[in-house]
């Protein structure tokens, strides 16, 4: 059996994605201050968020198990959108994304003892034009309320997408290719059933 890890996230999407890899894990969410630093670039911001989440969870868990954390953000024109505060905030985000291409940045952080490994996935997503009535109907589904950029690829938000270049799982919150490469550092062989880590 593969060694268990700690997933420093309460996101059901990240749990579902990690389940695909067949790696046992315990959930230990890490609450951190998610405000960007002045002048902080989007790439630096998502890397810092993932790293801080894994560090907090490692400290809280006592460091006995490896810790995996991730952060995913939508970026347009150099601005990180984050999660919507309310309907008006979500509507403003989706109106700006409408008919345009944006980036989704998904950083992964893995810690074991004093070792720290990181990866960054960058995807490009193009939205078709979205009507105001669609935005209101989408908000009413409840789906955008806790999603970066106010949409979810794995749900009805996919109706807005004209094309995607990059990692679909990264857009959903945990890029599986990059995550698999990091887990290999622990000796976890995802191709062998019951593979044991070092």
From TrEMBL:
Which regions form coiled coils?
Answer: none
- Provide this UniProt record's keywords sorted from A to Z: Cytoplasm, Hydrolase, Nucleotide metabolism
EC number from the UniProt entry: 3.6.1.9
What cofactor is needed? a divalent metal cation
- Family statement drawn from the similarity comment of this UniProt entry: Belongs to the Maf family. YhdE subfamily.
Q: Which NCBIfam families match?
A: maf
The name this protein goes by in its record = dTTP/UTP pyrophosphatase
């Amino acid at each position: 059996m593969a060694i268990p890890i700690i997933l420093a996230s309460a996101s059901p999407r990240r749990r579902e994605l990690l389940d695909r890899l067949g790696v046992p894990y315990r959930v230990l969410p890490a609450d951190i201050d998610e405000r960007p630093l002045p002048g902080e670039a989007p790439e630096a911001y998502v890397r810092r968020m993932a790293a801080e989440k894994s560090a907090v969870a490692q400290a809280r868990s006592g460091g006995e198990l490896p810790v995996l954390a991730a952060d995913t953000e939508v970026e347009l024109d150099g601005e990180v959108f984050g999660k919507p505060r309310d309907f008006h905030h979500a509507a403003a985000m989706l109106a700006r994304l409408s008919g345009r291409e944006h980036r989704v940045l998904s950083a992964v952080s893995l810690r074991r003892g004093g070792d720290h490994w990181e990866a960054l996935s960058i995807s490009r997503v193009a939205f078709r034009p979205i009507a105001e009535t669609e935005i209101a109907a989408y908000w009413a589904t409840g789906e955008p309320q806790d999603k970066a950029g106010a949409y979810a690829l794995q749900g009805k938000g996919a109706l807005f997408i004209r094309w995607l270049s990059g990692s679909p799982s990264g857009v959903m919150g945990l890029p599986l290719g990059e995550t698999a490469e990091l887990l290999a550092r622990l000796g976890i062989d995802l191709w062998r059933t019951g593979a044991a880590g070092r």
